[in-house]
Amino acid sequence: MPIRSLPTLVINQIAAGEVIERPASVAKELVENALDAGATHIDLTLEEGGARLIRISDDGIGIPADELKLAVSPHATSKITASDELEAIGTLGFRGEALASIASISRLRITSRPRNPDGSLEEAAAVLEVEGDQSTGPTPASGKPGTVIEVRDLFFNTPARRKFMRSPAGEFGHINDTLARIAIVNPDCGFTLAHNGRTVRDLPRNQSRRERCIDLLGKDLEEGLLEFDHHDDPQRGSAHAWGLAGLPSLARATSKFQHVCVNGRPIRDRRLMHAVKEAYRGLMPPDKFPMVVLFIDLDPSHVDVNVHPQKAEVRFRHPSHVHGLVLTALRQRLLGADLTPSATFRPPVPAIGSTEPAPVATQAAPIRSTDEFVDYFKAMDPKQKGFVYQEVKEQLKQELAEEVAEEDDALEQQLLSRQAAAQGQTDPRLPSADSLSILQVHNSYVVTQDEQGLVIIDQHALHERIMFEELRQRILEDKAALESQRLLMPEVIDADASRQARLDDLRPLLVRLGIEADPIGPNTVAVHAFPSLLFSRNVKVGPFMTELLDKAEAGAFDRLELGGGSDAQLPEEAALHEVLDMMSCKAAIKAGDKMSEEELAALLAKRDQIERSSNCPHGRPTTLRLTLKDLERQFGRS
């Protein structure tokens, strides 16, 4: 086929294929245009998830009537005028393709009444209608100040794209999430979202950053969000990081609740996500994602936003600098907070015949009565009623009766103890007050108290964190190798050529850990020396080295590329983390190990001396706290 120029409509539809993925893409582009136009309130109205209608109404500066046709032509924009301005973009939109692309795959209508340079309003609005490559107008019309853009029948002339759209509910979910990401970084602007005639969001204007974040994340999470405000070293630039860091207990299964903004632009950046993950490392399981809102402000010339068609990614001139900024800001805030989670209970069951209501629980409580169950059952989806109602009802009655009997026994025991104390006697079934200061339960948990209430400690998890921090201190900060003990007979383990190559990569690390290992055949490795610490804790050489090579082969010690040149490295602490995790876990006190009073006291003393004692290196909690308020609630004192 001969080379020929493509028609304008086809060019715009090709551009739309890159920019307009789904209705959420249209909403994103139009809302960002409204923000660039100085809007202080934006109304977003949808029908059928945006497939039938997307209407964006704003109170911005508007578009003059004589510029409406130019606005829907390709590569037309008011955001930039010269190529050198691309080096320091200060607006959300700048490509000049959004309206042209949207118009080529929908029925578009623009109504705008602009403001004049002196602040006065035009006498009338103007309307432009576009369908594919055909346009009508602009013609005079009535309209309020600002711009209203209606996008109807998206992908009507590209049926192949329409087939890939999700259900209206699914597409609305994407738009809702998109608007939340934009609204959370623009608290000065008010937003309203309506779907099929129902208002879903109504965010007021002129909120503080914190107020907007709480409105979108949920007021019930406010106490679990730690505010941080960190300014970088002025000699390195004017970078600034502000945000909210969720407690580890608020971690989620996906990264949906991680909001990152750079110079007012919501983005996704793997380097910044890595910094967030590193800041929370050891505070939560590795398959969880912390809840974080992060605002980064820096010189626009240090950020390239012209690297992604949808402007969802950016490129930093100094990526390791920004990575370090985020890591330091989050880590300092987390280290300064009490991360010990509070244990929660179901509300106690009132005595039979009592008219006093049960205390309110701190969290949503499970169903506690047959009346509650009836209401719950009626509200269920009929497809989920795959069990017999009467059987569950009778089971609830039986469980409630058993729990009341147990609480009656506990109350009786408490009264007997008080009577014995009043008579100057001691119940032999109860431990003495002195023995309650530190108590080991089932050789696995340590119970003590602090000024806030009762503290329950997992002895293995806490000792694992203590050993990890001591090892990290010695290897990373003191720059000292661990003591090593040579084996009388080398321990031989299986290792193919791939694992032997990994062993060579790990050799500098192994030397610092006191491990000496070398290949002695095509499929075997001999271990000649092993850390004395692991020997003293009866850690087996073969299984430990096999697990170490397994992790290396799985890429646990691979470097993360943070940029070019000197930036292409992973912090040494992260590189050692997996190995130190293994060592501390293998060497720590196990559940079921009996500890002496001196060992218990030493364990608690070290708990107050180390960082991040609330969680083990794998992220599991080491400690639970029952506050005095929780205890009073459970015993009916509040």
Summarize this structure as a short list of keywords or feature phrases:
formyl-coa transferase, domain 3, single chain, 22 strands, 638 residues, 18 helices, eight-stranded mixed β-sheet, 21% strand, alpha+beta, Heat Shock Protein 90, Ribosomal Protein S5, domain 2, 3 domains, five-stranded mixed β-sheet
Description of the molecule:
This protein is of the alpha+beta class and 638 residues long. The protein has three domains: 8-203, Histidine kinase-like ATPase, C-terminal domain (Heat Shock Protein 90); 212-335, Ribosomal Protein S5, domain 2 (2-Layer Sandwich), CATH 3.30.230; 435-638, formyl-coa transferase, domain 3 (2-Layer Sandwich), CATH 3.30.1540. It has helices at 8-19, 23-36, 68-71, 98-104, 159-162, 168-184, 209-217, 270-279, 319-335, 370-379, 389-422, 459-477, 497-513, 532-536, 541-553, 572-587, 597-607, 628-634, and strands at 41-47, 53-58, 107-113, 125-131, 134-141, 146-152, 190-195, 198-203, 225-231, 240-246, 258-262, 265-267, 292-297, 303-304, 315-316, 439-441, 445-450, 453-458, 484-494, 516-521, 524-531, 623-627. α2 (23-36) packs parallel to α6, α12 (459-477) packs across α16 and α13 packs across α15 (541-553). The protein is elongated.
Number of domains: 3
Question: How far is the N terminus from the C terminus?
Answer: 84 Å
Helix/strand/pairing class, anyone?
A: alpha+beta
CATH topology of the largest domain, what is it called?
formyl-coa transferase, domain 3
* DSSP strand tally: 22
Rg calc: 32 Å
Q: How do the strands line up in the largest sheet? A: 5-4-3-6-2-1-7-8
Gross morphology is: elongated
Proportion of residues in β-strands = 15-25%
Distinct helical segment count: 18
Average of the residue pLDDT scores = 78
The CATH homologous superfamily name of the largest domain equals: MutL, C-terminal domain, dimerisation subdomain
